[in-house]
Amino acid sequence: MGSARADGVIRTPDPVDFDALVARFRSLYDAEPDGVWAAPGRVNIIGEHTDYNGGFVLPIALAQHTVAAVRRRNDTVVRIASASINDGAVVTLDLTDVTEGGDYGWAAYIVGVGWSAGQRDLPVTGLDIALDSNVPVGAGLSSSAALSCVTARAWSDLLDWQLDNETVADLGRDAENKIAGAPTGLMDQLASVCGQESHAMQIDTRAVTITQLRFDLPAAGLSLLAIDSHTEHSHADGEYAERRRSSQEAALRLGVRELRDVPLESLATTLDKLPPLLRRRARHVVTDSARVEQTAAILLAGDDLRRIGPLLNDSHASMRDDYEITAPSVDALQEAAVAAGAHGARMTGGGFGGCVIALVDQQDAAAVADACVAAAARGGFPTPTVFEAVASGGAARIR
């Protein structure tokens, strides 16, 4: 690993040392890898829990990646070792034994990709894999999607599956949904596979279409801070699944296919048909999807990006009050960031912890970061770590 860049409490995660990863692969498997692949985590700028409701989302791919040195095997065995899990010990699984409902631990995000490929009648062989990552885990930055997508990209390239990006992403989602048991939508995987430098992706999750929108914050004198609360969350837990069930029940009671189909202009009268809990859940989904479209319009018009700030604040309030997925630690960070001069801030990711993002003028970044650390200390919360989130490219072979 290299040295982290630091500016006060703003610390860029250490980069992955590719040479060290390849050397570890050789040591583990007594062979050369066929190549090295990388897939990024993501920050969702706006539009939370809208993806599984057919709505819009607006993520960026991060500069932080999960990196995999990979070699194709001639059997159905998958061997995996991660620098940060199980003390680097090799996990060995046979793809013929992988089924829905099986318990494969963190390896589910990898072997689930091979399982999904087999369900699509793609030719599948085993792999030897060595992994490293600098995507923060449990921070709502899609470290799991980076893991499944680097695997999907490598497998597809090595076996010449000739898949489009959307299908590569869908292999990753299958691994998460059906083998790992995490009920995520498709946003995380699409962002990891399809990211472009200095662009945000407006994703229509129903049509599975992506509009790349220029998102060059440095050119506007801005930074996007990712403030990790170190309050861990999990997509596989019951709270996330409950929100998904509530959304589906609300749509059913309203007689629409998905909450995406509820018109914003008649929202108040439409929601009167629902009991209070479902009313709050539906209001968040419909309004946050609309906020994505408003943000995208600002980007498309080339307007002052500071105008996004109030939309970020409104999104956080909606997640806190209507969808009820924030946590006291992230609420404190969001409030501190805005009080210290951020144009807007909100929690990003599945919720119940994770990261807050804050849109700040570059010259104010250090002061906002300091204020967030101080607010966490006052509240008795874990000390947050802060880094700059930079829109970067998607999953690719790098060696």
Automatic annotation (TrEMBL):
This is Galactokinase. InterPro entries: Galactokinase (IPR000705), Galactokinase_CS (IPR019741), GalKase_N (IPR019539), GHMP_kinase_C_dom (IPR013750), GHMP_kinase_C_sf (IPR036554), GHMP_kinase_N_dom (IPR006204), GHMP_knse_ATP-bd_CS (IPR006203), Mevalonate/galactokinase (IPR006206). Pfam families: GalKase_gal_bdg (PF10509), GHMP_kinases_C (PF08544), GHMP_kinases_N (PF00288). The keyword Transferase applies. GO terms for molecular function: galactokinase activity. Keywords: ATP-binding, Carbohydrate metabolism, Galactose metabolism, Kinase, Nucleotide-binding, Transferase. Residues 119-196 form the GHMP kinase N-terminal domain. Residues 24-72 form the Galactokinase N-terminal domain. Belongs to the GHMP kinase family. GalK subfamily. It comes from the Bacteria. Residues 303-372 form the GHMP kinase C-terminal domain. It is an enzyme of class 2 (transferase). The keyword Isomerase does not apply. It comes from Flexivirga alba. Its EC number is 2.7.1.6.
